[in-house]
Design brief:
There is one protein chain. With 452 residues, this protein is an all-alpha fold. The protein contains 17 helices and no strands. The longest helix is centred in the first third of the chain and has 33 residues. 46% of the residues are buried.
Length: 452
């Protein structure tokens, strides 16, 4: 009976037997990272409120500056150290930061805590993008293109469950431990994540062997070792190499533009959701909380079901372009309906579908794009796109929304203004899907470009 359950489970998630151990470690790794982050996220939001809502735009600007300053430090580690060491050092750096914030909050008075909270808000916004970017860089380095299409959706399940656990820990324990002590709880999960990354690193050879076997079964390889598998080697190169590659490569520049379109659209929808919800529940904060909780629950259920049973199959059968195009299509339809009827029901359904589509399809597809790139680009160019470009999109979206609203554009006009962007986003997504398929054919099904 146990043999039958195991076999059915392997078929349900489309994983080969030799990939199971690495997949479980990958899920655990992502689970721990997002648990650590979601413990801290409510604390960050509270710090943002205490620091003054009118200062939020400036805090986002500080986050953009912080990511730009930290990227060259991280790129320097990538250039000089093997993968296992620079990943561990990155997480230990953030753990030390958490211990430092714990000390500052413990000894600061009320006025000082406001300023410490503002710096914590900026720091956590940088932390989130960096630790998740490092995680996915590691995944694109370990898994070959065909594997990533099948398994990245399942890997993302670990993150979804971690987000649920982190939020639950904060909600249930903040009254007992206090928000400051939760920083140390988050640091503990981050330390376990760093150790889990080291354990996962040891499964690289097994994953490579399964990739070669899969390619050989499809008549796309001869079973020879994959020359792109050299995770223990130092990547080398310069600190600014990732930025230069993004600016020089149409493919990487396209991914950067994809990130910009995504963040601008998400920011516009976020502002519109807040506007509509605040009008409907003007004097009912409990109603707002129930609504947001219900939206999160619907998003998580839809995301989990799609990640487990559909993501891998859809990316393998319909291609990466389908996964990338799903979200701009949702935004084309959603912003169109929202422009015609800027009401609560429309914005709620739109937001749930957009978030679930991003977590379950678009994010895994976007990570697959990097599997055909060199190891240097997987860690340096990807980190630049995931952090600085992401925050740049936040800035463009928030300030342009504010300016357009100040000029008198109402909810309908603001929603309709996103239709041309969504159309351009869709066109770019389809182009990137075709480029990925072409580059994968050039590299071979099992591999990626060499480091240099």
């Amino acid at each position: 009976m146990s043999w039958l359950i195991t076999r059915l489970g392997l078929r349900a998630i489309d994983v080969r037997k030799g990939e199971v151990a690495a997949l479980l470690w990958s899920c655990a790794y992502f689970f721990l990272i997002l648990t650590a982050y979601y413990i801290l996220r409510p604390i960050r939001d509270e710090m943002g409120v205490l620091g003054g809502v009118q200062n939020l735009a400036w805090l986002f600007t500080g986050t953009l500056i912080g990511t730009l300053l930290l990227h060259p430090v991280y790129a320097g580690l990538v250039s000089k150290l093997p993968r296992r060491r620079f990943i561990a050092l990155t997480y230990r750096f953030f753990i030390l930061n958490l211990v430092g914030f714990f000390a500052l909050f413990s000894f600061a008075d009320a006025a000082q805590s406001v300023w410490v909270g503002r710096f914590f808000f900026i720091w956590l916004s940088v932390f989130n993008l960096f630790v998740v970017s490092v995680f996915w860089s590691f995944m694109t380095d370990l898994y070959r293109p065909a594997q990533s299409k099948r398994l990245f959706g399942v890997v993302a399940v670990g993150g979804t469950l971690g987000a649920l656990l982190g939020s639950t820990i904060t909600t249930s324990m903040v009254g007992v431990l206090g928000p400051v002590n939760l920083l140390l709880v988050s640091a503990l999960f981050l330390e376990i994540a760093a150790r889990t990354a080291g354990a996962l690193d040891r499964h690289e050879d097994q994953l490579a062997a399964e990739a070669r076997a899969e390619a050989a079964e499809r008549g796309q390889g001869n079973g020879e070792p994959d020359p792109s598998v050299h995770g223990s080697e130092i990547i080398g190169g310069g600190v600014a190499e990732g930025v230069r590659h993004v600016l020089r490569s149409p493919y990487l520049l396209g991914i950067a533009a994809l990130m910009l379109f995504y963040t601008i659209a998400a920011t516009f929808l976020y502002f519109q959701r807040i506007d509509i919800v605040s009008r409907v529940f003007e004097d009912d904060p409990a109603g707002r909380i129930r609504l947001f909780g219900g939206m999160d629950m619907a998003t998580n259920v839809l995301t989990l079901g799609t990640q487990i049973f559909l993501t891998g199959r859809l990316l393998r059968w319909l291609g990466v372009g389908f996964g990338l195009a799903f979200l701009p299509v949702v935004c084309l339809i959603g912003f169109g309906f929202l422009g015609a009827a800027p009401v609560l029901a429309v914005v709620v359904v739109f937001e749930v579908l957009r978030r679930a589509g991003n977590f379950a399809l678009s994010r895994p597809a976007r990570e697959v794009l990097y599997t055909v790139m060199s190891r240097s680009d997987k860690y340096k160019a990807k980190n630049f796109n995931d952090t600085f470009v992401y925050r740049l999109g936040d800035q463009i979206g928030s300030w342009s929304y504010t300016a357009m609203a100040w000029l008198g554009l109402g909810l309908s006009g603001l929603a309709f203004s996103m239709l041309p962007l969504s159309l351009a986003w869709l066109t770019l997504a389809l182009w990137l899907g075709r480029e990925h398929r072409r580059m994968q054919q050039q590299c071979g099904e099992g591999g990626s470009q060499r480091t240099r």
